[in-house]
Specification:
This protein has two domains: 38-171, no CATH class; 175-294, Sandwich (Immunoglobulin-like). Helices cover 54% and strands 23% of the residues. The chain has helices at 3-67, 73-95, 101-171, and strands at residues 175-183, 198-205, 214-223, 236-239, 242-245, 248-254, 259-266, 274-282, 285-294. The strands form three sheets. A four-stranded antiparallel beta sheet has the order 6-3-8-9, with no helix packed on it. Strands 1-2-7 form a three-stranded antiparallel beta sheet, with no helix packed on it. A two-stranded antiparallel ribbon has the order 4-5. β8 and β9 (285-294) form a beta hairpin. It is rod-shaped and about 205 Å long.
Length: 297
């Protein structure tokens, strides 16, 4: 080969090699840029994934925190369902590769939906709690009103009871003008116990417009100095939920006006010397109590 041809061949080969080197350099530069872009993309996706993990962990924590404020059974069941869904997403998100852009985007959309659902639940909880607080307040107010009414009713009942007691006491008859007159067989007054054949007891039952008028019975209970009740037979009447002995009784028609009367004890025994007790009863109430003496003389 002549020198000229050799020179041309060398020039051509040099140009070709230079072109190949230049192309290789360009290719390597381009490849490096693509690698950097891929690395940046993967880093971005990994950061995005970590943000999503943090977000869904926060949602899970908020759901747990709000559970204690849920007192509605239906809402509580929905809460439990969403909490299970969050657990499933947490597990899937941790196992999904950051390079799976499609699934990462889908999971991001589901997390955004969960955030909206949580916001809706929070609104429902606030609404239910506000309603519950209002009902609790109303219930407390009702209880307070009921207590006030009960206390008022109790006070009125006590006042009525007290008034009834006053009326009852006011309706009790009163006996006065009591006198003891021992009589002999000729119905003359005598002071000698051995001559006494009749013991006369005078009395007046006072006026009382409060007492119920109508037929009534006055009982006289005579007690000897030794405390024994003077009786002819075993006569008893009701007094303070028990039956007690009496000596004499007399029926009369009470009109509300003062009523004067007398009762007689026929002496058929040896009279004890000393102080006697005379107790009068009407309508189950003791209306007078007096003492008198019988001397020997």
């Amino acid at each position: 080969m002549d020198k000229k041809k050799l020179t041309i061949l060398i020039v051509v080969l040099t140009l070709v090699i230079a072109a190949l080197v230049a192309g290789l350099i360009i290719f390597m530069n381009k490849s490096n840029k693509q690698s950097q872009q891929i690395a940046q993309t993967e880093q971005f996706m990994e950061e995005e994934k970590q943000q999503m993990v943090t977000e869904i962990d926060n949602i899970a924590g908020e759901m747990d925190g709000y559970t204690m404020y849920v007192h509605n059974d239906s809402l509580l069941r929905e809460f439990d369902q969403q909490k299970q869904k969050i657990k499933d997403l947490q597990a899937e998100l941790k196992s999904t590769k950051a390079t799976d852009a499609k699934r990462i985007a889908e999971l991001k959309s589901e997390i955004a939906t969960l955030r909206k659902i949580l916001a809706h639940y929070v609104q429902q909880i606030d609404s239910l709690n506000s309603l519950n607080q209002r009902l609790t307040s109303e219930n407390l107010e009702v209880k307070q009103r009921y207590q006030t009414v009960s206390e008022t009713a109790e006070m009125l009942a006590k006042e009525k009871e007290s008034l009834n007691e006053v009326v009852t006491r006011a309706a009790v008859l009163e006996l006065y003008n009591f006198s003891f007159n021992p009589m002999d067989e000729r119905n003359r007054k005598t002071e000698r116990s051995s001559k006494m054949t009749n013991l006369k007891f005078n009395f007046t039952i006072g006026k009382n417009i409060t007492a119920e008028p109508g037929p009534k019975t006055v009982y006289l209970r005579l007690s000897r100095p030794d405390g024994e009740v003077m009786q002819k037979g075993n006569s008893v009447f009701a007094y303070e939920n028990k039956n007690i002995e009496y000596s004499l009784k007399k029926e009369f028609d009470y009109t509300g006006e003062a009523h004067s009367d007398a009762m007689y004890w026929k002496v058929e025994e040896i009279l004890q010397i000393g102080t006697y007790q005379a107790d009068f009863f009407v309508d189950g109430n003791r209306i007078g109590s007096y003492s008198f003496r019988i001397e020997k003389k």
